[in-house]
Sequence to fold (240 residues):
Amino acid sequence: METAGYVSLTRQAGLWKEMQTVANNIANLSTTGYRREGVVFAEMIKALPTEGGNIAMTAARARFSDPSQGGLSQTENPFDMAIQGRGYFMLETPDGNRLTRAGAFVMNTAGELVNPDGLRLLDIGGAPIFVPPDAEQIAVAQDGTVSANGRPLAQIGIFDVEDPNAMLRQSGTVFDPGEEPVPVDDPVVLQGFIEGSNVNPVREIARMIEVQRIYELGQKFLDNEHERIRTVTQTLGQRA
Fold:
């Protein structure tokens, strides 16, 4: 394969990764707290032996998450919570503490607040939040303070990181902070609300169509290049 073929292949590989990312975004349109994901393309340029010539290879080696706020939906569930503005909830996982914007929580058999996967929600001090089994009225203040029957129990930890690019997506809505998270000053926690996905369906579908068309053009170029090389090889073989 000649240089043009290798360049086209790197471009096709990057477009395929972007198509997978766009498809995953569309699949998570209704996922609570989901952050839209994008692909970052990098280009490597190298000079060729011929004067004024160079070659550019592309790669999609990094991904980023869109930090914009998702829409808020009222549920009236006392254990549903949404963060307005900066910050993430902290979850305790087997791999260490992780961050999430998905605020749909339930109470487990031990009386602790957990997410649907059973991961415990942590307070501002890094401890699980326990709700007494006889609690009849659960209230969550704007600063994250949880009260039962008018008695404060704990303050939900709302954290953020200095460098958002250091965060790594561990699963759909759970992130490895990549650095030591810090508490958010003056957080805004809304009880009885959940934050939806921040994916714009119209934009994602338009991008999917665009990527598909570009990919098809690249594939057509590769097919033409293959046919050209085959024709040249056959012609040279006949002359020999």
User: Anything to note?
Assistant: The helical segments are 3-27, 201-239. The CA atoms of residues 36 and 216 lie 25 Å apart.
